[in-house]
Amino acid sequence: MPRKVLIFQSDPKSAAVLARLFRARGDEAWTARDLEQARALLRQVRPDLLMMDLHFPGNAWLDFLRALRQDQPRLSIIMTNRHPDLQREMWAQAQGVTVFLREPFTAQWLEAALRRAESGLSPDTRPARGTAAGKPAQSLPRVRVPVRLKITLPYLVLAITIALAAAFVISQVMLDSIQERFFNQLLETGRQSSDWMVREENRMLATLRLAANTQGVAQAVQAGDSDGLRNLVLPAIVNAGEETVEFLDMQGVSVLGLRPGRQPGEFDTVRGETFFQSVGFAQAVLQGRSDEQGDKFAGIQQTPFGRYFYVSGPIFDPAGAQVGALLVGKSVNSIAAQMSRDTLGRVTLYDIDGQPLASSLFSGTESFPLARSQVGETLIEQDASTLTRDLTLGGVNYSELLLPWEVRNGADQGVLGVAMEQTFLMRTTQTTRMEIFLLVAGAILLVIVVGVYLSNLITRPLVKLARASSEVANGNLEVKVDSGGDDEVAVLAHSFNYMVAGLQEGSIYRDLLGRTVSPEVREQLRQTFSSGNLRLEGQEAVASVLMTDIRGFTTLSEQASPSTVFNWLNEYFGKLVPIVVAHGGVVNKFDGDAMLAFFGILPRMLTPRRSAVAACDTALEMLRAIQSLNKQRIQRGDPPLVTGIGIHTGVVIAGGLGTSDRLHYTIIGDTVNSAQRLEGLTRELMDDTGALISQSTYAALGEQQSKYLLEPMGEHSVRGKAERLMVYRLSDLPDLNLPRA
Questions:
Q1: 252/278 Cα distance (integer angstroms)
Q2: Model pLDDT, residue 525
Q3: In this predicted structure, what is the pLDDT of residue 410?
Q4: Using an 8 Å Cβ cutoff, are 545 and 667 in contact?
Q5: Three-class SS of residue 289?
Q6: Out of 61-65, 422-426, 452-456, which region has the weakest mean confidence (pLDDT)?
Q7: Which has the closest alpha carbon to 212: 280, 312, 299, 329?
Q8: Cis-peptide into 123, omega within 30 deg
Q9: Which of 94-108, 244-258, 649-663 is most confident?
Q10: Confidence at residue 450, expressed as pLDDT on a 0 to 100 scale
């Protein structure tokens, strides 16, 4: 069910943030900025929850809270604060407020505060022993992922990773070695296949020479005596184991053709066939051509009776005249089968297009042609590299080496493929696998034991430290932890004890400085308080004071709504304050559109020269920032903010000003008044934004005066001072871009 929430805040930004968070939860939210508006909304809305600011000035807020408790005792109240204020918190607790929410406001911390507000603590609930007044005891959150697991798990993962990596590397090394041996064996088989083809071609050439040089062969060819020719050469052909022989006359007509018969060793005889008249390697012989290897030629030819590999040569008569040609052939199927038997490899012969001609690897129903790119790479880069491819037949993996298939005259007839079954995968025995498993399991168990032991050494003191931290969170600042030992945990315990000892002191310092200085300045102030170099009761110091004021801002304020003026000032000071902090200065206070800052006291004492340089550098950077801001304002239709800046160096009194329970660290003295008067002089001496420095600041700059353009503006009388002040206009040098200190 959505809540009705009244947000009573002195800071509009804080109210807007809280309203946005509640509306995101689905609640209804109203905001009030003063007591009268808050009382009216309480009567009108009757909220379920009040989010009230702890820092309202004066004591009217306390009377409001007291009356609210009497009128609406069941109203839930959450007090918000920007910094610790122990006295106001105690006053609020006396009125029954038990829940406090500190800036910055986030959804997470708001939910936690709402849960505490809904926990049912009555206004008169007394705080338990060891807790802060009015705050419920904090319980430790449940540990979801123990440190033991966070320490042990990485070791476990690391051990498993190392074991797997080692197993992978070892197996990969062994596999690479076996693969290398397999590939070398495949290369050797390919070399043997190439050599076999050369030997087979030479054997067929020997048969050709024997038949061509047999006595009477030339005369029988010349006479066209096929029967006599058959009787002369048949015994030699049969003994040589040739499959086919062709005797051609000089016109390419077959005188005698011996073709494979129906039975092994039998031949069919043909004559008068003109088929070989168009065959290139036959015509090369008949035309009497020769190359560097002689007058013999070879080639592959698809014939009516099959695809054959032929070697061809001339036939000469006793007078040396060529009378015909002789062709000795062998089918490509026989070549593939016999080469496979002799080399123990699976052989495939491919033509120039990559189509298989004959194979001992796969049958005619299966086809694994080569791509044209594979054929081209094999033939073109045959001397530079070797090409392999993987095949799978019947569930068996093969690696095929591709080699060029060349004949006697060097012409590429196609590709010779030599394949072997991939038999290089390793298999371990059952005993070996069990030994490996036990070794890895033992290593993992050892890692777990060591990890748990080491994590216990770390987590035990950390658990004690967590419990002590919970006590501190509940307000018990007397808790201590054992800081014995010599490791990082002992250092952490010592730091924890030191932190507890300084919590109240640090709270005072944060309240003292608020948001006027950077964290570095605040820490330096803490150290100087501890050392005695900086005192709250007031001390004399030489500092440079800078005063800024917007000219005619009252008139501008009358022309715009309060919210617009408020946004203008926030934008304006948002540009100037970071410049002061960046140069080591402290913004002491804001007074409407005016700002007072000093240099040379915090975070440490500086010489007058260094404080004057820092103040002048700040002023020049401010002038540039204001000029840039005014350009943006003019572009969006807003009036420019003409600013005067005054800087004076002199003696001030710095210290805590106020009462015993509320101090404000500030500076007072004639130097502050002089800086304010110098800023006022800018209205008389300058029409636009500008900065003036006094004679004392001019003198303090010393040799650093050359860094700036200092224009004397004469002596002037100012209100409240009897003597006339010599002033200088501060500007950037026109032709130098000097680095800022």
A1: 8
A2: 58
A3: 64
A4: yes
A5: coil
A6: 422-426
A7: 312
A8: no
A9: 244-258
A10: 78
Please report, for residues 152, 204, 249, 250, 291, the alpha-carbon distance to residue 285 in angstroms, rounded to integers and kept in the order given.
85, 16, 11, 9, 11
605 Rama class: left (phi>0) / alpha (psi -120 to 50) / beta: beta
The amino acid sitting at 702 is G
Q: Which residue has the higher pLDDT, 146 or 190?
A: 190
Please state the domain extents for the chain.
4-117, 351-406+414-424, 430-508, 531-731
Tokens of 529: 């308080």
pLDDT at 123 over 50: no
Which residue type occupies 509? Y
In this predicted structure, the answer to whether residue 505 has a pLDDT above a threshold of 90 is no
Q: For residue 312, list its beta bridge partners.
A: 297, 327
State both tokens at 558: 């009358």
Q: Is domain 4-117 in CATH 3.40.50.2300, yes or no?
A: yes
* CA atoms of 621 and 188, how far apart (whole Å): 83
The predicted pLDDT at position 536 comes to 55
> For domain 531-731, which CATH number applies: 3.40.50.150, 3.30.70.1230, 3.40.50.10750, 3.30.710.10?
3.30.70.1230
Q: Residue 405 pairs with which residues in a beta bridge?
A: 414
Q: How far apart are alpha carbons 248 and 149 in whole angstroms?
A: 92
* Residue 12 vs residues 76, 563, 592, 655, 660: alpha-carbon distances, Å: 22, 10, 16, 31, 29
The closest alpha carbon to 647, from 695, 590, 687, belongs to: 695
Taking the CA atoms of 430, 432, 433 and 434 in sequence, report the sign of the dihedral they define: positive
What CA–CA distance (Å, rounded) separates 72 from 69? 5
Highest mean pLDDT among 147-151, 533-537, 697-701: 697-701
Cβ burial of 293 (10 Å; 0-12, 13-18, 19+) is: exposed
Looking at residue 642, its pLDDT comes to 94
C-alpha 495/C-alpha 514 separation (Å) is 25
The widest CA-to-CA distance across the chain, in whole angstroms, is 154
Say what percent of the chain tops pLDDT 70. 84
Average pLDDT of the chain, as a whole number: 82
Task: Give the separation between CA 374 and CA 387, rounded to whole angstroms.
Answer: 8
